[in-house]
Specification:
This protein is α+β, with helices and mostly antiparallel strands. The chain contains five helices and nine strands. Strands 1, 2, 3, 4, 5, 6, 7, 8 and 9 form a nine-stranded mixed sheet that branches. It is globular.
Amino acid sequence: MNILAVNAGSSSLKFAVHPVLLGVARPAVLVGSIEGLESDEPARLTARIGERFHHAVLEGGVADPFEQAIATLQGLLRRELAANPLQAKQSVQAVAHRVVHGGDLFCDAVVVTESVLQQLASLSPLAPLHQPHNILGLRALGQAFGDVPQVACFDTAFHVDMPEVEYRFALP
């Protein structure tokens, strides 16, 4: 089984493919990023596949650079997983997304549904520079990978177990 971990940001798409064998996560077989998605310059792909490095400049002039980044990632995954017979049999079985804000709605990782996406969108005012891009990544990869489960993992989950006085007042 392979899990694709994704961090969709305002100007980049970071990713890693982690094989999971017998319930244990192994070191990533592919790690990379596509940088410059909100630039006038073409975006740049950098990836490490095992010991090899891959660099590419994405063609500029596209209507949606984020969609182009998703398509580029899909192509890279198809090529690299097909080149490795062990990995090719397993493909991507789940996509894990870093999402900045779960508010008080989400304390744990959650399988993404349309209802979850709507709830996450309602939290955009809490993290306006990050949340909309996270949601865009969830929607785009959900569409790109079809029936593959998408799971949102929240930065704010770190603070869930803190006593109320400690998370309300930023004091030592």
